[in-house]
Design a protein that fits this description.
Blueprint (H helix, E strand, L loop, with lengths): L2 H33 L14 H6 L5 H31 L8 H66 L3
């Protein structure tokens, strides 16, 4: 794959899909709230139900709500799987072909730890986990910016070398 193909698939396409998604559903929710339609007009008491309050005012409520639940489930499963893959790769010394049982171990351990934290701490634990995720976002974004700068420098150097060699 070329860098251009990678950037298109990883940055441009998801960004466009997100813009369309947020415009369609966010605009619908705002219109419902402004028009005084449904539960959203009374304010959001539980943010986790806001999407379902918006969907119940649209046709095919059962189908769209079921599809929304399936999409959220797919998001969580793929996120957990990605995390397990990264942890597995780190513990295998960078190998991507580690034994399958090792990856299953890490995936199971992730799930068990999350379940114990949520069961033991209840709503307070969920709030603490969310706060922790947000707090780690800033240092991680600094690391990502440094990585982007390094990537740009590397690509410029490679382009310079290829241009000197007459390949470009």
């Amino acid at each position: 794959r070329t860098v251009r193909e990678f950037l298109t698939a990883v940055l441009v396409v998801p960004t466009l899909v997100t813009i369309v998604w947020m415009s369609a559903f966010g605009g619908t929710a705002l219109a419902q709230s402004a028009a005084g339609v449904g539960e959203l007009a009374n304010g959001i008491s539980d943010v986790s139900l806001a999407m379902f309050h918006m969907l119940e005012q649209l046709p095919l409520t059962t189908l769209t709500s079921s599809l929304a639940i399936i999409l959220v489930l797919i998001f969580f499963v793929t996120s957990s799987d990605s995390g397990s893959l990264v942890i597995d790769s780190i513990t295998a010394g960078g190998k991507t072909d580690a034994p399958r049982g090792q990856r299953v171990f890490w995936a199971t351990l992730e799930g068990v730890i999350a379940a114990i934290l949520l069961y033991g701490g209840g709503d307070a634990a969920l709030g603490a986990l969310q706060a922790g995720a947000v707090a780690t976002g800033l240092p991680f974004s600094v690391v990502l910016v440094v990585m982007c700068v390094g990537l740009v420098k590397s690509l410029r150097e490679e382009h310079r070398v290829l241009r000197l060699a007459g390949a470009v």
